[in-house]
Amino acid sequence: MPSSSTPPEQPPSVPVPVTPAPVALPEPWSRAALTVVVPTYEEAGNLPVLVRRLMSLDLPGLRVVVVDDNSPDGTGEVADKLAVEFPGRVSVVHRTAKDGLGRAYVAGMTRALEDGAEYVAQMDADLSHPVGYVPQLLGTLLATNAGVVIGSRYVPGGSLSEQWGLRRRLLSGWANAYVKTVLAIPVRDVTAGFKVWRASSLRTLDLPGIESTGYAFQVEMHYRAFRRGQKIVEIPIHFEDRVAGESKLDGAVALEAALRPLRLRRAENSRR
Ligand SMILES: Nc1nc2c(ncn2[C@@H]2O[C@H](COP(=O)(O)OP(=O)(O)OP(=O)(O)O)[C@@H](O)[C@H]2O)c(=O)[nH]1
Ligand SMILES: [Mg+2]
In the structure, which protein residues have their CB atom closer than 6 angstroms to any atom of ligand 1? Predict the structure, then answer.
């Protein structure tokens, strides 16, 4: 019998994983023709981890298209080896020079649509988008008439890596608020990069006509979907910090991200 001065025994503190185990989708949803497009620039350390995690999901219809911009660290060759390791499931689009995230996505999505994908996912290579959410995103798309389902940091239940300091949190929150003020898109995480599109909805967005070269691509895609009346659904995710390598967000990319919403609004106004 413990004395009254002995504190009650505490359960051992077990860290609670914030990223859930993948949900199991029922047949035939689990067999859906889903292609995950992954743009890479200097992601040689992260890409094999990401691709193996994707391949181990219980989604036999899942394919990966890597779009590499001739990364100096050899990510392109790493991707080629993964294509050999997973024949018919992993393919690589090689481009000759760093040309921006937006252009890489347009190239990868175009390839995915040409190859018959019915659903197209977007993911960063740096492991900040946890693979465990992919079946949830796909299942939500299949259960609704949404054109796109977004893995959102800013709906209830969504969260940011604890590694993110106050400066980055403020910058991300401010960027979201700015875009929503300028373009009035009813999306909580309007700069999000982790999502699954319906192929039929992507086809209506005129991918070759996308003007954004860098990160503004995410906003331009949401804006186009919204203007065309597509349903946009958000589900909460935990956003991890990148595992290895460095961010590619430079001054030119940030400037485009700041100016693009204004240009999109001006173009819309002049059409009225
Ligand atoms: N092909 C290609 N991929 C790019 C380019 N710029 C960025 N990427 C990739 O796009 C994804 C997102 O880029 P990140 O540098 O992680 O950008 P971020 O997530 O805003 O920044 P961090 O949170 O600091 O990592 C990563 O997979 C990059 O490798 C580019 O010019 N070409
Ligand atoms: Mg990143």
Answer: 39-41, 43, 67-69, 98-101, 104, 124-126, 128, 242, 247-249
